[in-house]
Write a structure and sequence with these properties.
about 180 residues, elongated
């Protein structure tokens, strides 16, 4: 199991909130519930996933539905702590124009009006795993680049001292040592 993450839920209806609380609990994650506009103290926290409920807005809100969710997504994307956090939108309006507006505002995925508990858990698991997979891919790419450079040095020269220098320098780069003697 991956490390526990915080999941931010914005402006959810009670039924959506209950389903997401159960899904997060089953996966070992913590659900943080907020309303829009987002409190300023949320900017100090990091989240593994943000979920916006596009069925309505906070009680008394001027905007509702997709317009409300679009505004919330824009705000999430403008703040550094949530700018690159995956955003999932729970929405009833699955028309092409609604989905296009939400994607343009920063949504990464959608949940329909009546998701099953297994679908919710699967989508949460997938979105919380994506950053880990991306980091692994970057790390693997760096290691492969180092191996390629070492291989090229071995192939292009017969000078043993240059080969050893390249190998030691690249190993130092991989383990992030500043000085190679």
């Amino acid at each position: 199991m991956n490390r526990p993450e915080r999941v931010l839920l914005v402006d959810a209806r009670p039924n959506t909130q209950r389903l997401l609380e159960e899904a997060c609990r089953a996966l070992g994650h913590t659900l943080i519930i907020s309303s829009w506009p987002l409190p300023h103290d949320l900017s100090r926290h990091s989240f593994g996933l943000c979920i916006v409920d596009a069925f309505g807005g906070a009680e008394g809100a001027v905007l509702s539905g997709v317009a409300h969710a679009t505004q919330v997504l824009r705000e999430l994307r403008e703040h550094a702590p949530t700018a690159s956090t995956p955003c999932l939108v729970s929405c009833e309006d699955v028309s092409e124009s609604a989905l296009a507006a939400l994607l343009a505002a920063g949504a990464d995925d959608f949940i329909g009006p009546n998701p099953s508990p297994s679908e919710l858990q699967g989508r949460l698991r997938m979105h919380l795993r994506l950053p880990l997979l991306a980091a692994r891919s970057i790390s693997r790419d760096r290691a492969l680049a180092a191996m390629l450079e070492i291989t090229q040095a071995l192939v292009s020269t017969i000078d043993v001292q240059e080969i050893l220098y390249t190998v030691v320098r690249r190993i130092a780069d991989v383990v992030r040592v500043d000085r190679v003697s």
